[in-house]
Every structure is written in structure tokens, then in C-alpha cells.
Amino acid sequence: MDHDFWHARWKANEIGFHQAEVNAYLQTYWPRLNIPAGGTVFVPLCGKSRDMLWLASQGFKVIGVEISALAVEAFFTENGLQPQRQELAGYSRYSAGEIVILMGDYFSLQPEQLGDIAGVYDRASLIALSPRMRAAYAQQMAKLIPTGVASFLVSLDYPQAEMDGPPFAISATGVEQLFAADFEIRPLASIDILAENPRFQARGLSHLQEQLYRLVRR
């Protein structure tokens, strides 16, 4: 993972991927995953996403991982939370209520550091990574989560030649190639969002779709 790139993005506040409001797809589609009540939801590359607050409000425990100290500290400060901090095996562990964020590298995580995961939420993780890193991301996810655990994946598809990422485009075929060996893949929806995203129109995109998936570890 390109640590310097993401540290620089957060330092410059170039975080167009961050959403100020809770993701509408999460609220609509999350119940379809049938995650056990009270279970722990893993949020990879979590940034300072407010979606973690929503998951906690629904009765779930949340554990995220994030490389940027600025992002982690902003999450707790902006939401009026006073976290406890511990240094554990190469990670700084921030915790407040039902939310834990491990500050460190996703690719170095071990399953025992996450504990008993009941679900996964990925809105802007896979598409934040360049194509050369995707296979390692998928392999790490397969390593981290147990058989039967469901994930909610939100991805983007557009003509990659029309715009440099991040966010990077990934087609339905690309998702299949990455995850089919270890996950059952169920498409949930495909939504055309170009009209409501003028900043992407300005970058020259001819079409832009959000693709939603339910993945279940085999």
C-alpha cells in the first residue's frame, strides 16, 4: 500500500471520497446481509467514515483499520468521542464505545487482531486501490474473515481511460475475477450516478455507475 500517497492526501485534505452523511445504500441494503445482532463489523480502510457511527447505532460492534493518524483522530474529534489508546503489535488501537479503529496497515493485519468478525462493509476501500494491488486486497480479505461471513461491497465502474484514479474503476467481471475463488458473489444493484456527480462530469467521464454486491466467504 502506498502509505506516502494516502498520508499526503489526508494532510492536504484531498478526501473527496469522504461522505459527510451516512451512505444511503448502507441503510437500504445492509439488512439484506442478515448480520447477527450484536456482531462485529469490519470496515477496511475506514478513514473517518460516519458509516461506522450508523453501524454502531444499529447495535453492531465496529472495528476499522486506517493508515492515516489524521483520519483516525479526526473521526473521534469530529464526532465528540474520547477514545482510549493502546499500542498493540504494530498498531495503535483507538476505542470509544462500540467502535475500535486500528491505526496501521490493512495488509499486515492478522485474523486474531480482528477477533470474531460477523460482517464486512467496504464502500471506498477496493476502489481506492490501484489495479495492481487488488489481488492482494482480495487475498487479505479472504484470510481475515471466516467462512459464512457476508460483506457489503460498493464499487464504481466507468471507462478507466477517461479518468485517473482514485477512485479506480472495477467492472463486474473484475469483481468476479478477484473474489469468485473464495466468495459467493451476489449483485444487488447497479445505479447510474453520473448526473448527480458534476465533479466527475468535469473530469470527462461518459458514464459512471455504482455497483453493489453481497459477498459471502466460502
List its traits:
single chain; nine-stranded mixed beta sheet; 218 residues; 8 helices
Q: Could you describe the 3D structure shown?
A:
With about 220 residues, the chain is an alpha/beta fold. The protein has a domain of about 150 residues: Rossmann fold, CATH 3.40.50. The protein is built from 8 helices and 9 strands. It has a 9-stranded mixed beta sheet, sandwiched between helices. Strand 1, helix 3 and strand 2 form a beta-alpha-beta unit. The longest helix has 14 residues. The chain starts with a helix and ends with a strand.
Summarize this entry quickly.
With 218 residues, the chain is an alpha/beta fold. 29% of the residues lie in helices and 27% in strands. It has a domain at 24-65 and 108-217: Vaccinia Virus protein VP39 (Rossmann fold).
List strands and helices in order, with pairings:
Elements: H1 3-11, H2 24-29, E1 40-43, H3 51-57, E2 61-66, H4 69-78, E3 84-88, E4 91-96, E5 99-103, H5 111-114, E6 117-122, H6 131-144, E7 150-157, H7 172-179, E8 183-192, H8 198-202, E9 209-217
Parallel strand pairs: 1-2, 1-6, 2-5, 6-7
Antiparallel strand pairs: 3-4, 4-5, 7-9, 8-9
Quantity of strands, as a count = 9
Q: Structural class, from helix and strand content? A: alpha/beta
Low-confidence stretches: none
Within the CATH hierarchy, at the fold level, what is the topology of the domain at 24-65 and 108-217? Answer: Rossmann fold
Q: Report helical residue fraction.
A: 25-40%
Give me the CATH superfamily of the domain at 24-65 and 108-217: Vaccinia Virus protein VP39
Average pLDDT reading: 92
Largest sheet: 9 strands, mixed
Strand order of the largest sheet: 3-4-5-2-1-6-7-9-8
* β-sheet strand percentage: 25-35%
**End-to-end Cα distance:** 26 Å
Rounded to an integer in angstroms, the radius of gyration calculated over CA atoms is 17 Å
H/E topology pattern: HHEHEHEEEHEHEHEHE
The number of helical segments is 8
Which second-level CATH architecture of the domain at 24-65 and 108-217 applies?
3-Layer(aba) Sandwich
What's the level 1 CATH class of the domain at 24-65 and 108-217? Alpha Beta
